[in-house]
Design brief:
Number of domains: 1
EC number: 5.1.3.1
Helix content: 25-40%
Shape: globular
GO biological process, one term: pentose catabolic process
Pfam family, one: Ribul_P_3_epim
Largest sheet: 8 strands, parallel
Order of helices and strands: EHEHEHEHEEHEHEHH
Radius of gyration: 16 Å
CATH superfamily: Aldolase class I
Number of strands: 8
GO molecular function, one term: metal ion binding
Strand content: 15-25%
Bound molecules: D-xylitol-5-phosphate, zinc ion
CATH architecture: Alpha-Beta Barrel
Distance between the termini: 7 Å
InterPro entries: Aldolase_TIM (IPR013785), Ribul_P_3_epim (IPR026019), Ribul_P_3_epim-like (IPR000056), RibuloseP-bd_barrel (IPR011060)
CATH topology: TIM Barrel
Length: 218
């Protein structure tokens, strides 16, 4: 098993001290910074917009992994790319022309990801898996941090891993929602490559330590 990629979710950070929070991530063993964008339509919540992404980017020394929980993402891909996204994930449930959306993300020079909600079967990715860099498997219903991990996720990750291997594809499997030290190892055993963690990191007394322990999971 490879060392997992760790992506703290900035949604759980103290927005009044965003620079300090981003610098903490810079100083940690985290690999990426996960940035959640919510529009109040695709999900029942708002999070942050482009100025906040630009502010994170100004201080960040790690790539920004942007997760778009929005309808009509095609309209905003260029703006998020310009704001500093390294990878952009769109929801399969929000993209009737997913192949075209993925091609647009790639044409902008970003890594392309697809996120799937807890009820969405992985088979929906069968015809796109070879074209993408990342699958973001939602292990909670998107919209809020701090929710309980959905156990069925393990089965989905196993199926997805098989699909990726069968297709000779190279997409990474990212787990998003309710990740903690207990589920990290079984998730990696099932085939996950990237662990997003929001509250588990930012509500800890020592977030740097928590990130180091997640990174050392094997
Ligand atoms: C949920 C977001 C997640 C969230 C994870 O809609 O996509 O990225 O920030 O936060 P935790 O780890 O607290 O569940
Ligand atoms: Zn997310």
């Amino acid at each position: 098993m490879q060392t997992p990629v760790i992506a703290p979710s900035i949604l759980a950070a103290d927005f009044g001290n965003l620079e300090r929070e981003v610098k903490m991530i810079n100083d940690s063993q985290a690999d990426w910074i996960h940035v959640d964008i919510m529009d109040g339509v695709f999900v029942p919540n708002f999070s942050m917009g482009l100025p906040v992404v630009e502010a994170v980017k100004r201080h960040a020394k790690k790539p920004l992994d942007v997760h778009l929980m929005i309808v009509n993402p095609d309209h905003y891909l260029a703006a998020f790319c310009k704001a500093g996204a390294h990878s952009i994930s769109v929801h399969v449930e929000a993209c009737p022309h997913l192949h075209s959306t993925i091609q647009q993300i790639k044409a902008l020079g970003c890594k392309a990801g697809v996120a799937i909600n807890p009820h969405t079967p992985v088979v929906q990715l069968e015809n796109i898996i070879a074209d993408i860099d990342l699958v973001c498997v939602m292990s909670v219903n998107p919209g809020f941090g701090g929710q309980k991990f959905i156990e069925h996720t393990y089965r989905k990750v196993e199926k997805l891993k098989k699909m990726i291997l069968d297709a000779n594809a190279s997409a990474l499997i990212e787990i998003d929602g309710g990740v903690n030290q207990q589920n990290a190892k079984p998730l990696l055993d099932a085939g996950a490559d990237v662990l997003v963690a929001g509250n588990f990191v930012f509500s800890a007394a020592n977030p740097i330590d928590v990130i180091a322990r997640l990174k050392a999971t094997h």
